[in-house]
Amino acid sequence: MIKNKVTKKLTIKDFEMALGEKLSKFVQDSILSNEFKYKELSEEQNNELILLIIKTLVEENPVKTGDSRINDWEIGWEENLNLLKSKKLKIESLIPKYFSKYNVVRFNGRFIQPISERFEKNTLSILVDYIFDKYLENNIDNIYEFGCGTAHNLLQVRKVNTEVNIWGLDWAKSSQKIIALINKKGIDKKINSHNFNYFKPDIKFNLGKNSIIYTVASLEQVGNRWEKFINYLLLQKPKLCIHIEPIEELLDKNILLDYLSIKYFEKRNYLSGFLSGLKKLEKQNKIKILKADRNNIGSLFIEGYSIIVWQPI
Ligand SMILES: C[S@@+](CC[C@H](N)C(=O)[O-])C[C@H]1O[C@@H](n2cnc3c(N)ncnc32)[C@H](O)[C@@H]1O
């Protein structure tokens, strides 16, 4: 039995182990600016969680991704919009409500129980800081988040670059309303938005020169229908494409938590065949993959934050 009373704190080393590399001073400082207090779980608690996942997979019918979900997203982001309207400059209004539903996260191959507030959201923010710090060069003029929701990730760009134009795209119109308000309230004056559907990319929407695009937990929503979006990007040729998404190919079917995560991806119709598809494009000399790594960080049901970086040739 693991003792379950001791409060621990995620350290820089824990994140370096998760990401498999030494982290920059910027990311280290970002980790230190959070609390990340948690408890280990007992064997019994761990088994209860495994049972909950299996029951969900076998007995429940969680809603699947696809075209019919647009309304759910409209309604969800409308709630954040109303919060933002009612508060003065409150960035917290932009935090999606789906984080921390079960107050359990997976970290380096096990479940842990967060004590600090917004633990999962803040671990994801570290990953966002990590990609911005590593890939947002000074000569970039525009950065686009596709499937940006409330645009809270985009605002993190300002920690590393105050000049770049930031663009939030989403199929939900309430996302564009949020961004208009962010601009109007002066939270960010260089933020822009555009309505964009992965299933029907607006090929007339041209990316500016010197652009980077990224997605965070949103391409996950297309299942195996990612090809049109990738074709759009191949035409637009941004300098870099970055994804923090669930990537089945990077998990190991012979490890229990990975296996359950892959089964959950299937159950919800999350992103599938994406990395294999990119590898095919690489063989055809259409793209170059610069990074494709899992990072051992996730929620109760999935490890959903693997990082892929590629560029059109
Ligand atoms: C889990 S949320 C993530 C939002 C944001 N990236 C974040 O990290 O907070 C998924 C987002 O993908 C968007 N989305 C889902 N399907 C889409 C589609 N077909 N085209 C464009 N956006 C889509 C949703 O509207 C939602 O904003």
Task: Give structural notes.
- With 313 residues, the protein is of the alpha/beta class.
- It has a domain of 216 residues: 3-Layer(aba) Sandwich (Rossmann fold), CATH 3.40.50.150.
- The chain is 37% helix and 19% strand.
- It has ten helices and twelve strands.
- The strands form two sheets. The protein has a seven-stranded mixed beta sheet with strand order 7-6-5-8-9-12-10, sandwiched between helices.
- Helix 2 runs antiparallel to helix 5.
- The longest helix has 17 residues.
- The protein starts with 6 loop residues before the first strand and ends with a strand.
- The mean pLDDT is 95.
- It binds S-adenosylmethionine.
- S-adenosylmethionine binds next to helix 6.
- S-adenosylmethionine (SAM) binds next to helix 6.
CATH architecture descriptor name of one domain: 3-Layer(aba) Sandwich
Give the termini separation.
Answer: 53 Å
Task: Please report the number of helical segments.
Answer: 10
State the CATH superfamily name of one domain: Vaccinia Virus protein VP39
Helices and strands, in order, run as EHHEHHEEHEHEHEEHEHHEEE
Instruction: Assign a percent range to the helix content.
Output: 25-40%
Shape: globular
Stated plainly, the CATH topology of one domain is called: Rossmann fold
